[in-house]
């Protein structure tokens, strides 16, 4: 596994970093087929205040869970959240496509699994799946997120180390298909 150090990470902290544990699981399912690469990026529970009149979690909280998952995914790829302040660099979501498959209700535990689908010059297309504790798909989103200069309010090229890690993810995924 490649270990990225500060000298090739566009200003990351002094510590060496590795992709988060579980980032490249690539395990086989019960039928012996290779599972897609994903990373567990968020875990939550549905609280009463997060539900609507029909008793299931409202749309805004699905989006919030997916947004938090995205932050954990890009951090695992090499983005340092401190760059928002230190370098005035961050992310702007420009596209969301959400599909709802099953309801989750008060007290239900859930997790989000995330993967990279495409790496552009200044953007990432990611896919996030919200699963219940029975491993049933409840909702999924494909989002396009643009790396952003927070002062100039324009897109900018992805940091090289982040792009390399995301490309590595895609390469490993394509060799498993």
Automatic annotation (TrEMBL):
InterPro entries: 4-hydroxybenzoyl-CoA_TE, HotDog_dom_sf. Residues 1-17 have a biased composition (Basic and acidic residues). Signal peptide: none annotated. Residues 1-34 are annotated as: Disordered. Pfam families: 4HBT_2. This is Acyl-CoA thioesterase.
